[in-house]
Design a protein that fits this description.
alpha/beta; 12 helices; binds magnesium ion; binds adenosine-5'-triphosphate
C-alpha cells in the first residue's frame, strides 16, 4: 500500500505545489514509484510545474465521471519513469468532486505505488477536504512568517478531524543570511509554535522556480540538498535538516551576506 501524503498549508503561495513536485522527483530518484495528485480543481498547476501540461489527455474529473480509467489519466514523467502525475481539471465544471471520490480513485492505484502525494489547494474549504480526506499523513508547509504559521496552525487543528496518522513540518523559503542577522523568525521558534516534528527546511532559492530549457524541474542549486534530505527524512525517519546558514558563515559568508543586503 502507498503512503498517502497530503501537502497542505492553509495560506496560499507558500510553496505546497513546489514542495509536492520536488518531493515527487526526489523520491522517484530514490527509486520509489510515486504519483503526484493534483486536486486543485480549476486552478491546477502541478502539470505546468512538472512540464507535463502538453501530455495531459484525461484528468481526475474524467476518472471520477467514468470517462476513462485511472491508468489512462496517469501521465508518466519522461525524465523519471517511476514518477506519474494524475492531473486536475482546468475548469470548475466538476467541482462537486468530493474527498470520497478522490479516495475511490486512489484505492484503485494504491497497491501499485509507494507514494501518493496530494497537492492541496489553499484555504480550508471543499478543496481542503477533497485533498485531506484520502490521505493518512500530512506535510504542513510554512514560510518563516507569522501569517503563514498562524494559518498552518489552524490547519493542524482541522487535521484532527481526519484520519491523519502523522504530521510533519516543512519550512520553505528560509533565508540563511536573514537567519544569521536575526531578521527572520528562527527555526526553533517556528517548530515550537507549530508543535509538530520538523521534516525539512528548504532555502529560498531562485533555482526552485526555474525550469530547465525543456520545461523540467531543476535538480541543482542550493535547494537540491535540502529536498534530498527532506525525501530521506520522510522515507526512513532520519532527522537531517539542511543548514541554510552555512554559506553565510566565515569571512566569505559575511561578504556574501552584505552583498545580498545591498544588491
Ligand atoms: N524555496 C523556494 N525558493 C524560491 N521560490 C520558491 C520556493 N518555493 C516556492 N517558490 C515560488 O513561490 C511561488 C509559489 O509557490 P507554489 O505555487 O508552490 O505555492 P502554493 O502554496 O502551491 O500556492 P497555491 O496556494 O496558490 O497553490 C512560485 O513562484 C514558486 O516558484
Ligand atoms: Mg499550489
Amino acid at each position: 500500500m502507498a503512503r498517502k501524503i497530503v501537502v497542505t498549508s492553509g495560506k496560499g503561495g507558500v510553496g505546497k505545489t513546489t514542495v509536492c513536485a520536488n518531493l515527487g522527483v526526489y523520491l522517484s530518484r530514490l527509486g520509489f514509484r510515486v504519483v503526484l495528485l493534483d486536486v486543485d480543481i480549476g486552478l491546477n498547476n502541478l502539470d505546468v510545474i512538472m512540464g507535463l501540461e502538453r501530455q495531459v489527455i484525461f484528468d481526475i474529473t474524467d476518472v471520477v465521471a467514468g470517462k476513462c480509467r485511472v491508468r489512462q489519466a496517469l501521465v508518466q514523467d519522461p525524465t523519471y519513469p517511476s514518477l506519474y502525475l494524475l492531473p486536475s481539471s482546468h475548469t470548475y465544471a466538476s467541482s462537486k468532486i468530493t474527498g470520497e471520490h478522490i479516495k475511490n480513485v486512489i484505492d484503485i492505484i494504491d497497491h501499485s505505488f509507494d507514494y501518493i502525494l496530494i497537492d492541496c489547494p489553499a484555504g480550508v474549504e471543499a478543496g481542503f477536504n477533497r485533498a485531506v480526506f484520502p490521505a493518512n499523513e500530512a506535510l504542513i508547509v510554512v514560510t518563516p512568517h507569522l501569517s503563514s504559521i498562524r494559518d498552518a496552525d489552524k490547519v493542524v487543528g482541522l487535521l484532527s478531524e481526519y484520519d491523519i496518522e502523522s504530521k510533519g513540518l516543512v519550512i520553505n523559503r528560509m533565508r540563511g543570511d536573514l537567519l544569521l542577522s536575526g531578521e527572520m523568525m528562527n527555526i526553533e521558534s517556528i517548530v515550537k509554535a507549530m508543535a509538530i516534528p520538523l521534516l525539512g527546511v528548504i532555502p529560498d532559492d531562485d533555482s526552485v522556480g526555474k525550469m530547465s530549457s525543456d520545461g523540467r524541474i531543476m535538480t541543482d542549486g542550493e535547494s537540491a540538498r535540502a529536498f534530498t534530505l527532506l525525501s530521506e527524512n520522510i522515507h526512513n525517519g532520519s532527522k537531517k535538516i539542511y543548514d541554510c546558514t552555512y554559506k553565510y558563515r566565515g569571512l566569505m559568508g559575511y561578504l556574501k551576506r552584505n552583498i545580498k543586503k545591498y544588491v
